[in-house]
Amino acid sequence: MLFVNQRTQNLRQGAIRAMFDRANQMTGVISMGIGEPDMATPKSVSDAGKQALEQGFTHYTPNAGMPALREAVATQSSVREIGYDPEREVIITNGGMGALSLLMAVILNPEDEVLIQDPQWLNYAAQVTYYGGVPVRVPTDAAHNFEMQPEVIERLITPRTKALMINTPNNPTGHVIGQLTLKKISEIACEKNLLVIADEVYNTLLYDGAENRSIAAFPGMKERTVVINSFSKAYAMTGWRIGYAAGPAEIIDKMTICQENFNACANAIGQYAAVYALAHPEEAEALRNVFQERRETALQELETIPGITVVRPNGAFYLFPSIQEFGLSDVEFCDRLLTEQKVVCIPGSAFGTCGAGHIRIAYTIGQDNLREAFRRLGQFCAQICSR
Ligand SMILES: Cc1ncc(COP(=O)(O)O)c(C=O)c1O
Fold first, then answer.
1. pLDDT for the residue 16
2. Are 258 and 357 in the same domain?
3. Is the pTM of this model over 0.90?
4. Residue 27 half-sphere exposure, CB side, CA atoms within 13 Å?
5. Which CATH number characterizes residue 360's domain?
6. Strands 359-362 and 346-347: what pairing?
7. CA distance 200 to 206
8. Nearest Cα to Cα of residue 113 among 124, 121, 101
9. How far does CA 234 lie from the centroid of its chain?
């Protein structure tokens, strides 16, 4: 470790990876721990990538991404009604994570505070810390479906607060923030001069009539919001590593310069495939329909297990039920569930202290495995109760 800097030494492997490492050493495991679609990329999208490869489109693209893809993001993606200039306000990145890390690199000064929901996907806090900022937890609770409350956000704002992260639909809870709450949050952001980072990577996966209007569309928000999105979840393209950010030109310009210096551009073949994908939203809709059916199965199965309580989340592919009735911590519960029944779920506390007493279930497996995993979960719960 002699040559590794302090900042990197402080970077830790996340709890989710550690759980996978354990599961990988076992046989017969069913994992409901994985936050990615299990199906292959739709064939037509892969074919578009294949065609690009065969035609020799294997070179660097512009640092901000292929003009055709930036244009497609501005005119065909979920932010089309906001009216982004594809040349100045859109950048194509290495997945949503690539967009987030470029953004953190260009906005954070040392000790700048970034408000982040608790519980939340872990990588935000890791990135903020790595770039010298300070992640500030916004506590939430099950009574409010883990939705950030505007008055709690307001109380946590200090002169050092630079930005607020919003992730809806949410990982780990699957919750979609209501439009009224988004409106109130947008008003606070305007009043307190905050940048809002709107991570919308799950926004094609909506159920029960949930609305996905971006916070960037509220009055006064376009100039203070950076929307992050990606093809990973919507088109089962996690391995292609294509995402994007849309936001104020000065931020996108600096992110582009960063990209030029750090990784040149996003993968070219993936960008061609992504142009096709945006022109074919029916492919994303087909994946959503698969997840909707699985969600029904998962919720029905959970309802048959006494002691587990769950709200019906209306987005993404996660459930976040409470297991508090069983008298085990969420970490013990998941550890024993893996050891005794070979099922992977992720302890809620891995996503923040407010997630304690819950587990994250990803319904990213086929119906048969899903039913078998819930049979095992039911057996595990019954055994705990009978001891
Ligand atoms: C909330 C959230 N944002 C962003 C990402 C990044 O996805 P990708 O980099 O594959 O686009 C993920 C992946 O799990 C996520 O859960």
1. 75
2. no
3. yes
4. 0
5. 3.90.1150.10
6. antiparallel
7. 11
8. 124
9. 11
- From 34, 91, 121, 165, mutation site for ligand 1 pocket: most ligand atoms within 8 A of C-beta: 121
pLDDT reported for residue 259: 98
What six digits make up the tokens of 113?
């505070």
CA of 201 to the centre of ligand 1 (A): 6
* Residue owning tokens 């992720």: 346
CA of 55 to the centre of ligand 1 (A): 30
Domains identified in the chain, total number:
2
Pocket around ligand 1 at a 6 A CB cut-off = 35, 95-97, 121, 167, 171, 199, 201, 230, 232, 238, 243
Looking at residue 241, which CATH number applies to its domain? Answer: 3.40.640.10
Q: What is the reported pLDDT for 19?
A: 80
Tokens 């109130």 appear where? 184
Write out the two tokens for 211.
């609305």
> pLDDT by residue (tens digit) across 334-364?
999 999 999 999 999 999 999 999 999 999 9
- Match 């061609």 to its residue by tokens: 272
* Pair (124, 251) in one structural domain: yes
**How far, in Å, CA of 177 to CA of 340, rounded?**
36
Q: Which residues, including other chains, have CB under 8 Å from residue 250's CB and lie 6 or more apart?
A: none
Nearest-angstrom CA–CA distance, 381 and 361: 15
Arithmetic mean of pLDDT, 89-94: 98
Residue 298 has pLDDT above 90, yes or no: yes
pLDDT of 1 strictly over 70: no
List pLDDT tens digits, range 212-253.
899 999 999 999 999 999 999 999 999 999 999 999 999 999
Kindly provide the residue ranges of all beta strands, DSSP E only, lying in the chain, ordered along the sequence: 30-31, 90-93, 113-118, 134-139, 161-167, 195-199, 225-230, 243-246, 318-319, 343-344, 346-347, 359-362
